[in-house]
What does this fold into?
Amino acid sequence: QPQLVESGGGLVQPGGSLRLSCAASGFTLDYQIVGWFRQAPGKEREGFSCISRTGGMKNYAESVKGRFTMSTDKIKNTVYLQMNSLKPEDTAVYYCAVEFSRRLGCRYEVHEFDRWGQGTQVTVSS
It folds into this structure.
């Protein structure tokens, strides 16, 4: 059964770093649009990063630009999210998702993504 599995979340102090993984099984992430999203308690799920089908375009929301970086490993069929300089307001459940479309670029709009992982908790606190 095709699925996405996130891992790498945890508790980290402000200013710290984490690397999240999004591993696909049952299908390939190659030439797929992949996005990262998060949902804080009491808030709607929001997108903040995506990578285009070719990998040539990566978009980041202003809230994470310069601190978060997406990367891919085609051999491992995995997408990563390196998160540096973490802040308490980054606390949320983090999700990866795939959009099955032929879009040339990418957008991190929740409603455009088709397959989701189960999420991993990230807590930034001292």
Q: What stands out?
A: The first strand starts at residue 3 and ends at 7. The radius of gyration is 14 Å. The mean pLDDT is 97. The CA atoms of residues 90 and 124 lie 7 Å apart.
